[in-house]
Design brief:
The structure holds 2 protein chains of 2 kinds. Chain A is α+β, with helices and mostly antiparallel strands. Chain A folds into 3 domains: 286 residues, no CATH class; 114 residues, no CATH class; 58 residues, Orthogonal Bundle (Arc Repressor Mutant, subunit A), CATH 1.10.10. Helices cover 41% and strands 21% of the residues of chain A. Chain A is elongated. In chain B, 37% of the residues lie in helices and 13% in strands. Chain B has an 11-stranded mixed beta sheet, with helices on both faces. In chain B, strand 2, helix 4 and strand 3 form a beta-alpha-beta unit. The chains are: A alpha+beta, B alpha/beta. The complex binds zinc ion (ZN). Zinc ion binds next to helix 1 of chain A.
Chain lengths: 478, 470
């Protein structure tokens, strides 16, 4: 439907980095420890403490900058963002403002109709996370400072996104990149990947942006899409009614399916940013960047291309297999065992994915080792077992972790590829079913399937179907 | 006193003529006797036990470089399990869980910490009148201020309540009280001494530095506390300083910045310093007139930048986690407001307001950014000056110690008492107060020497030499 309006959307994505220690102190970043145990005087903001930058955070930021085609700034500066909140011990958050570590990048996203679109990245900056306020314990609010000082990067896009679908595609791209790089686990429910959206609408062909609102608290890909769609519609409705959109910050309520105003323009914070005097400006030299470039893993787009070229896979397969780094890794481990790439792809995208999705586990935790799956594929391709048998023993492989060879042996499931043995069975089947043979000969070719079924029953599915077909045709044409 | 400096003291202890325990007991009883000076916020009686342990170590020959040196520490520097108040109500009953690097280095060398000294609240002030523990009195005239903000440390040394003391200097807070109390006080190069454990006032200005009765002890103390610290990213490497009788260079070029000898300088101070300059022999010293053209903007620049940093540094005192919390606040906002209203003194609140203002959106460019640019000009002034001179010589203060209450109602007047000291903090360079005599009222006069960044060895050796001609 053409509403006559277009949406202008920019996303701010916070990614919690998978460093062992916090950004400015030696405390652990482990999630799930008892409250206020991953803390020290530095992250508690005691008098006289000073931050010391964790270089790993810079490494990770450079990785993300390179993965999103950004310029890595040789000099960047930390800044204080000042505001009061109980889960912010120092009364300011150390972030970056005027000179972020990365700027001017882009990512390519797929839009619905199979074409691609560039979304520009304005900046990526490093900052420390705040703690957690726990409000749901009656009257009192409790504060857990374990998360205080956990490193974040904030990835800010230009307002190049124009639909909820594009926003979701962009966010998935960011998710894919941070997980490929191994710098963030991408878990939106636990908040290791967070997304805020700046949204405005304007009549088509109007140059100036409309008044924008900011929507926060969208903790899944689905909610990002829903919340943005909601907000676009809300703004269009206001304009259609002759009203004016108010500049404000809204909180998405997934249960209610709507966004609620959190604060208006007047209540907006003045963060009084200024350069952090406790840290010297960060100098990143060419060697540092070169080192990171060398250590960079293959990124999804490149990997997809390679899967198509090197393994001759269709684009669809390559895209599905490379969507997540672990899936692509698993696939490549499988094909280290077998050269039957397409069959391997079918299995990984089919039976493996089905199990993993159903159990909601990571493919890395999938009980069948890539080696065993590779062996299974080889057994099929070498006519040792039929595809049907393969499907039958797969659950056992999952359950027991046994190799397919072992199971086949134990259960005597080796495919019958002995022509004379099969000829005997085929002949018996034909002799026992003279009526059907008559029907076939009189032109009812559909009965052919019946004979195949009978042979398979006789052999408990072990007969090589291709051979069965050949022999049946030969015998029936006699 | 049984000794003139630490070298003599340790000699006497080793000989067995001086007991370290009774030395510390002596200091403790003097502190008690001079209680009216109000130099200490907290006195550590357990120093006696430590003295006896260290005495044994000394006799066994296992003691560190500062063994038995009795040190008073300004109460804005952290010592584990000892109170830290910054002379503020807002840190009521607060005890740090870690020790400042500078103090730890002293403890590692077997120094004895005798107590925490009074100061202006969060080191904000020039008279030590802004303290939750009440004002400190000048030992030369109890109706006068000792200077600030490290007034307690200066008095502790001047009144012989300890051997040496640590203070902090953000805009003159060591040198000005040293001048008012007639002791040596050094503001080191920014970063020479780790700030880890120094309660931040203005992070890009703050330095920890030594007070002493003589240059030997001052140098010893500085040598121990200096050096790069991985806990302070702004700290710097520095070498050991040796004071020497021999003048290594043929002549030392002494620069006299004309801006420091103009209007507002007390004539008695001016006369005394000119007298000293005239006495310096020309085969050792070359006197040159120089200019630091941006000096008149120093106070304004200093107050914009330091209050901006302070407004952020002091945000953590909110009553949420530690220290004072106002009772019976209905909402979170009330708790913040009541805690900070009741917990902070007037001057601290004034500076937080000022700093918040200069960082506010719409004012940042006009104040903070402009002041940052001005700060670069001060640095250039000094770089140019040091192309001509090795050392700059100036008065430390425009007047000698003023009366308690004399300036406390006029903040601008009070700020001007730092007029000769703030520039060194803006430029990050080392500056030393040398006591050079007394005015007609018997109040100490201070003279300041300044040197380029990390040139403390040259600075202290020049002072050592100049001392011979006082
Ligand atoms: Zn920590």
């Amino acid at each position: 439907m053409d509403s006559g309006y277009e949406a202008v959307i920019g996303l701010e994505v916070h990614a919690q980095l998978l460093t062992e220690t916090k950004i400015f102190c030696g405390c652990s970043t482990r999630f799930g420890n008892p409250p206020n145990t991953n803390v020290c005087p530095v992250c508690l903001g005691h008098p006289g403490v000073l931050p010391v930058l964790n270089k790993k955070v810079v490494d990770f930021s450079i990785m993300m900058g390179l993965a999103t085609n950004c310029t890595i700034n040789r000099d960047s500066v930390f800044a204080r963002k000042n505001y009061f909140y109980p889960d912010l011990p120092k009364g300011y958050q150390i972030s970056q403002f005027e000179k972020p570590v990365c700027e001017h990048g882009f990512v390519e996203i797929e839009t619905g109709n199979g074409s691609t679109k560039k979304v520009r990245i304005k900046r990526i900056h490093m900052e420390e996370d705040a703690g957690k306020s726990i409000h749901d314990l009656g009257e009192t609010t409790l504060v857990d400072l374990n998360r205080t000082g956990v490193p974040l990067i904030e990835i800010v896009s230009e307002p190049d996104i124009s639909s909820p679908g594009e926003a979701a595609a962009y966010l998935k791209k960011i998710y894919q990149l941070v997980t490929y790089l191994g710098i963030c686990d991408g878990n939106m429910e636990e908040g290791s990947l967070r997304c805020d959206a700046n949204i405005s609408v304007r009549p088509k062909n109007q140059k100036e942006f409309g008044t924008r609102t900011e929507v926060k608290n969208m903790n899944s890909f689905r909610n990002v899409e829903r919340a943005i769609a909601y907000e676009i519609e809300r703004q269009i409705d206001i304009l259609e009614d002759g009203g004016k959109v108010q500049q404000e910050t809204l909180l998405w309520n997934a249960d209610a399916g709507k966004a609620v105003s959190m604060r208006g323009k007047e209540e907006a914070h003045d963060y009084r940013y200024f350069p952090e005097p406790d840290l010297v400006p960060l100098n990143i030299d060419e060697n540092w960047i070169t080192g990171i470039k060398k250590s960079l893993p293959e990124l999804p787009d490149k990997r997809k291309q390679r899967f198509m070229e090197q393994y001759g896979l269709p684009e669809y397969d390559a895209k599905v297999l490379t969507a997540e780094r672990e899936t692509a890794d698993y696939f490549e481990q499988v094909i280290a065992e077998t050269k039957h790439y397409k069959l391997a792809s079918n299995w990984v995208m089919g039976d493996v994915a089905a199990y993993v999705n159903e159990k909601k586990i990571n493919i890395a935790e999938f009980p069948v080792s890539p080696k065993n799956l590779g062996e299974l594929i080889n057994l099929i391709q070498d006519n040792v077992i039929s595809g049907k048998i393969a499907k039958e023993i797969f659950p056992e492989m999952i359950e027991t972790g046994k190799s397919p060879g072992e199971i086949v042996k134990e259960k005597n499931l080796v495919q019958i590829t002995d022509t004379s043995e099969l000829e005997g069975i085929v002949k018996t089947v034909l002799e026992n079913n003279p009526a059907q043979v008559e029907q076939y000969k009189s032109g009812k070719e559909k009965v052919f399937g019946f004979f195949v079924g009978q042979v398979m029953r006789e052999t408990k599915g072990k007969a090589n179907p291709k051979l069965v077909n050949e022999i049946l045709r030969k015998e029936l044409s006699k | 006193m049984e000794y003139n400096d630490y070298r003599e003291k340790i000699g006497l202890i080793k000989q067995g003529t001086l007991s370290l325990t009774s030395n510390v007991e002596g200091f403790l009883s003097r502190i008690e006797k001079e209680k009216h000076l109000n130099a200490f916020n907290f006195v550590f009686k357990d120093a006696v036990e430590r003295a006896s342990e260290i005495e044994n170590k000394i006799l066994e020959g296992k003691a560190g470089k500062a063994a038995g040196l009795v040190v008073a520490v300004k109460d804005n520097i952290s010592i584990k399990n000892k109170p830290l108040s910054c002379s503020s109500k807002i840190l009521e009953n607060f005890q740090p869980v870690y020790t400042a690097t500078a103090v730890q280095k002293l403890l590692d060398e077997d120094a004895i910490i005798i107590g925490k000294t009074n100061c202006d609240e969060f080191a904000m002030g020039s008279s030590n009148e802004n303290s939750a523990f009440g004002p400190v009195l000048n030992p030369y005239d109890n109706s006068r201020v000792p200077g600030g903000s490290s007034g307690g440390s200066a008095v502790a040394v001047a009144a012989n309540l300890c051997d040496v003391a640590l203070g902090s200097d953000t805009g003159g807070s060591i040198r000005q009280p040293a001048a008012f109390c007639g002791v040596y006080g050094l503001k080191p190069t920014y970063g020479r001494v780790s700030r880890y454990g120094l309660t931040a006032f203005a992070s890009s200005f703050d330095t920890i530095g030594p007070f002493a009765k003589n240059l030997n002890d001052l140098t010893l103390l500085l040598n121990i506390i200096s050096g790069y610290d991985e806990k302070d990213s702004t700290s710097q490497k520095s070498g050991e300083i040796n004071l020497t009788e021999n003048v290594s260079k043929s002549t030392i070029k002494i620069g006299l910045p004309k801006e420091y000898f103009g209007e507002g300088l007390n004539p008695e101070i001016k006369t005394r310093i000119e007298e000293i300059i005239n006495r310096l022999p020309s085969d050792n010293f070359e006197i040159i007139d120089i200019s630091l053209p941006h000096t008149e903007y120093a106070i304004a620049t200093y107050y914009i930048l330091t209050t901006a940093e302070a407004s952020s540094n002091l945000a953590r005192y909110d009553g949420v986690r530690y220290g004072f919390r106002s009772k019976d606040s209905a909402t979170l906002k009330d708790m913040y407001e009541n805690t900070r209203t009741e917990g902070f003194g007037k001057e601290v609140k004034r500076r937080i307001m000022l700093g918040t203002y200069v960082l506010s959106s719409g004012y940042y460019d006009a104040y903070y950014r402009k002041a940052q640019k001005a700060r670069r000009l001060f640095k250039e002034d000094f770089i140019n000056a040091f192309k001509q001179a090795d050392i700059l010589l100036t008065p430390t203060t425009p007047t000698t110690a003023f009366k308690i209450g004399e300036k406390s109602t006029d903040p601008l007047e009070m700020y001007l008492s730092d007029i000769y000291t703030t520039s060194a903090n803006l430029a990050g360079i080392p500056a030393l107060n040398i006591p050079v005599g007394f005015d007609a009222n018997g109040l100490p006069i201070g003279m300041q020497l300044m040197a380029p960044e990390l040139k403390e060895p040259e600075l202290l050796n020049a002072a050592y030499l100049i001392n011979k001609f006082l």
